[in-house]
From TrEMBL:
The keyword Transmembrane does not apply. It comes from the Bacteria. Residues 222-321 form the HTH araC/xylS-type domain. The lineage of its organism: Bacteria, Bacillati, Actinomycetota, Actinomycetes, Geodermatophilales. This is Helix-turn-helix domain-containing protein. One of its GO terms (molecular function) is sequence-specific DNA binding. Transmembrane segments: none annotated.
Amino acid sequence: MASPPDVPVTRTAFESTSSDDAWDALSRMYSRGRPHLESGAASVRLSTAATPAMDVDTATLTPAGGAFDPNPDQLNIITVLDGWVTLDHGRAGTVTTHAESAYLHLPDHRADLRWGQLEALPVRLPTSHVARVVAEQTGMRPEDLRFTSARPLSDEHARLWVRTARALFRELGDPAVSSVNALVHLALVDLAAAAAAEVFPNTAMTRGYVAGPGDVRPPAVRRAVAFMDSHASLPITLTDIADAAGTVPHALVHAFRRHDGTTPLDHLGRARLAAAHDDLRQAGPGAGSVDVVAARWGFPGPAEFRVAYAAEYGHPPAPAG
């Protein structure tokens, strides 16, 4: 099956010392914002690397403050690189964030923000994508996911998000990058969604009874394996795999663990590693480097591919030709 086309990365940049222009830009990117009457004259420098499912920004702002409306369709997570931000969600709490930490603008809450001279690394994700990833992991309904605090669960969780945001920027922030492999893109978006759900308090952490996964028979596992093996070159999700198997994601994960001691996505990773191994065995002179093969099969970096390959095959990857 042919590999899907790469996912385009669109780059935009904006800089202005006009307070009106600055607030217009912030409103377009995050949620509708209005400056406080006593706010300073904000100026901004913004740049964005955007894919169809994620935006990674860099932002430099002068001291200001204002009110921002809810934006239920978008999850805005801001890593503070230098400076500070105070976010007040009213009854949902207030958080002050300093350098090397992060906060979340609760999608269904109005927020009052104040900040000093600020350098930040915002990440914007569709809430629907985050809800899909959480539903696959937990079995809860996507529509039941709500974030309940702007503050990370702990300092260690905050550091986890900062590392995630920096990793996303490394992959997408290079101006020379105009597109990204479709498998890598899906892995990056899923990584960001899973990290957001792990770092910031939400209803998946406090949910009550969720119906058990049910009895998924070996034929469903076999259908899932066949689907993954024949679609390994495509950016398929756990939901896609479960649909092909005739079940739901949470039940399929449970079935794989019971029957094979693994998970569907573990199997998919091994299928892609095996495909990369076959490509290298068949490669002749000029067929492409190990790094090209690694990228083709969705490995986010050459180092990760080399480690996984050596663990599976007992030697470093190299073309046979």
